[in-house]
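Journal club prep — side note

Before the paper discussion, L.F. wants everyone to see what a predicted structure for a comparable chain looks like in token form. Sequence:
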Amino acid sequence: MRGGITAAKDIPVKRKDGSVFYADINASRITLDKKTYLMGIFRDITEQKRILEELRTLNESLEQRVAERTAAVEKMNEELCVEVSEHKKLKENLVYLADYDPLTNLFNRRRFQKEIDDLLAYSRRYGVEGTLLFLIWTISSTSMTFTATRSGMNSS
């Protein structure tokens, strides 16, 4: 209201039937027949208050649901991180077991064959000669036999 003043906000007002409503009261000066009067306007804000309260309640409910969902997502993320970590450890172990004997922690047969093949290929490519020493252990219930065999590696 132009030139008006707010006299009161959110005031409970009693109707003739005894019911109560909430109102904002604004006032304004008017002049009639050279006399100045104060005109008051009561604006019922009951519905506005009800809507604001409903919005506040819905907002609180939404914030609660967001907090619950955020907590659930954080928990799932932690569980996923643990699973990824376990998967990574299992993968590293499988990679290790692909090349090493778990009992002796030495190259297994497959890796040992690959190393020999690589050395032979290197020897052939660059004309390098070498010697390969085979150690064979035989264990029986009564004795242990050790045999060493020496073999020359030829690039031909």
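L.F.'s comment for the group: Residues 5-44 form one domain. Keep this in mind when we get to the figures.
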